[in-house]
Amino acid sequence: MLRRVSAKVFGGFGIVLVLLIAVAGFSGKGLFSAKDNFHNYRDIARQTNEAGRVQANLLEARLAVFNYMRQPSDDYKKAAETRANAALAFSTDLAKMVHRPDLKEIATQTSAQMQEYLNGFEEITKLQVKRDDLVKNSLSMTGPKAERDLTLVMRNAYESNDAAAAFRAGATLRSLLLMRLSVAMFLVNNDKKSFEQAMADSAAVKETMSELMDALEDNPLRKYASEAKMLHAKYEMDFMAVNETINALSESTFDQQAQLYENRIRNDHFGFRNGRFGF
Q1: CA angle 259, 263, 265 (to 5 degrees)
Q2: Which of 2, 10, 25, 156 is deepest in the core (most CB within 10 A)?
């Protein structure tokens, strides 16, 4: 009888131990699962934060680039380069955080695109420097020189009672001044209408200049008119170069590419936040 009771007691203890072991096993599995989930959550949070940094710095870079193209300055240039380089650094770090091959490839491509963005901005600054150099060191010097030569011809022809030469010199000077005015308007507005008007004025300069050269065939003043003619030709050529440079700036797809990069980063950012990219 006692043996039967002890057997039942020890049997009950055995069942309790088995149940405890089972509970412990399930609890341990749950703890390990919770630990894994915590690590995954931490990875997702880090990746989301890094993607947000990329996006924020790219936005700041785009704003600085916009300001630079509207009003070029070293401050805007430096701000654009600083923010773009920061976005590149964060996108490179992001690529290192991602473990899934397909998502790692996306992050790596983003880094490559950020490098392309920096290269594109460098080309923009080169075009801007070229434009500024043409305006400052060519147009602003050549135009006044041609004007002085024509003024000298007009004054001396008038004082010599050469009415025909004085009239044609004055007409040429007028067309040159109108051309310079149209050029100045173009440099402010960068519009097609101002460019076409400047070229029409330039054609008028050529026409009246030809008449002036004929009127000064045997006149010592002809050399000054010839110099003014050469200066006008250079002025027109440099103005056309400025127009080409401005067209290259306006036709650049640089900012459109930046918008595509930003959209992609934003989509990836939401992917990290929703947990798609965290494993």
Answers
A1: 115
A2: 156
Reading the block at residue 217, the tokens are: 């065939």
Question: Are the CB atoms for 253 and 197 separated by under 8 Å?
Answer: no
> What are the tokens at 94?
């992001």
User: At residue 129, does pLDDT exceed 80?
Assistant: yes
Q: Would you say residue 104 has pLDDT above 80? A: no
Identify residue 104 by its one-letter amino acid code. K
pLDDT, residue 41, reads 61
Tokens of 172: 């040429």
| Residues contacting residue 126 through CB under 8 Å, at least 6 positions apart | none
d(CA 80, CA 277): 29
Nearest to 83 by CA among 96, 67, 104, 106: 67
Nearest to 243 by CA among 202, 183, 180: 183
Give Rg (Cα) of the chain: 38
Q: What is the dihedral of CA 163, 168, 170, 172, to 10 degrees?
A: -170
What is the mean predicted confidence (pLDDT) over 200-216?
Answer: 94
